Amino acid sequence: MNAPWKASGAHLRDPFHAYVCDDHSHDLLRAVAQEMGWALEKVHKGGLRNAVQSLSMSASPNVLFVDLSESGDPLNDINSLAEVCEPGTVVIASGQVNDVRLYRDLVASGIQDYLLKPFSADAVRDALANAQAVFLAPKADSGDARPHALVNVIGTRGGVGGSMIATSLAYLSSARDKRPTALLDLDVHFGTGALSMDLEPGRGLTDAVENPSRIDGLFIERAMVRASETLALLSAEAPISQPLITDGSAYHQLEDELRGAFEWTFVDLPRAMLVQHPHLVHESNTVVVVTEFTLAAARDTIRILSWLKSNAPQSQIMVVANKVQPGLAEIARKDFEHSIERKIDIILPYDAKVASQAAKLGKTIAESGKASKLGQALGQLHLMLSAHVLLEEGAGEAKAGKGNGSLIGKLFDVKLALPRKGKGKAGAPADDELIGD
Length: 437
Description:
By secondary structure, the chain is an alpha/beta fold. It contains 18 helices and 13 strands. Strands 8-9-7-10-6-11-12-13 form an 8-stranded mixed β-sheet, with helices on both faces. α2 (about 45-55) runs parallel beside α3, α3 runs parallel beside α4 (about 100-110) and α6 packs across α16.
C-alpha cells in the first residue's frame, strides 16, 4: 500500500475511493469528497470486504478509505487488502476499537492513518488532505544516496560450505558492522539459510518465483523473515514434488528490491544457477568462490573462475578454501593454486566440533564459534570483503569527484582490525596461515 511509488500509470487512477459500513459515515464521506472535488459515487457501502473484492478487479485509487468496523481480524484483513492494492496507494482506515497497540500494528502494516468512530467531518477532511499530500509528494530516488554491496557466494561442489560462509558473512555484516543486511538463499528446495538460524523460512521466496508481478517494496517487507534488527532472510523449503519453473526474472527483481531496502545483500547462489540464470552475477560487487583441496573441486574451481571472467568481469573474485586439514588434503595447497592459476585468498580450518555446536544452537558459526580458529578466520574474511567494498566505493566517489578523504580513514580502521602476519591472538591462526601470499 505504502510501497515505493511509481509515477507510470498514476494519472490513470481514480483520486479517491471509500468503503464504509454505516449510513452516517457514508453521508459524511460523500460530503467531504464533494468539497474536495471527488466523485460522490466512489463512496461505497460494504467496508473492507467489499474493498478487497472490488479492487481485485479494478485499479487502485490514489487514496483509499476503508472501514474495519465489521472486521473480526483487522490486521489479517489489512494484509488481504495489501494483496490487491497497487504500490503507492495511501490507505486510511477507520474502526470502533480504541487500542493503541492496534493503531501501531496497522500503521506498521502500511496504512497512513486510523480514525476512531464516530469521527467528525474535520477529522476526515484533515486525514484525506494529509493522504493526498503523501501521494503527491515527490519521491526521492535514494538509490545513489546509500551505496549497496551485492555479494554472491558460490560453492564449487556440494558440501564445501558455501551456505555456511554466506550465513556467517551476513551475520557479521549485520551484527559487527550494524549494516542493514539481507540474506537471499536461492536453493528453493534444499536451502539451509533459515535452518542454520533456527527460523521458519515461510513462503516468501516461492511466492516470488511463482508470481514475479507481486514483487515490490511491500512484498519484500512482509516476505522476509527477521533474524535480528539488522538482518533479514529470504529462504524456502519448497516441496520436492513441486518444480518451480522460472525464466529468472523473479530473482532479478528480488535483487533490485533488496538493493533499495538494504545496504548489503548476500546471495547463497547454487552453482547450477550459473548455467540457468547467468544474469544473477551481472551486478555483483564480489563473488566468493568456496572450494576444497580435492581433485573434483579443483576441476570445478577452474571452470567457474573461467565462467566468471566472461560473465562477471566487474566483480572482485575471492577464492576461499574451506574444511582444510593439514596433511589430509587430496591436493597440496601449492599444487591446487598452480592448477587454478591464482592464489587462495583465505583458508578456513576444519572444525567439526564448532560446526556441530552451531547446528545444535541454531546459530551461525560466526556467532557461536567466534572464539575458535574457524570463527576468527571467518572474521578475517569479513574484514577483507569490507575493505574491498570500501575501496570500490572510494573509487566510485573519486571518479564522480566526490572524494573527501574519508575513505582513507575507513580503510585505515579496517587495516587496524586485521591481525598482522605471524602475530595472531593466542589460539588463533596467524595471518600467514590463512591468507594467500
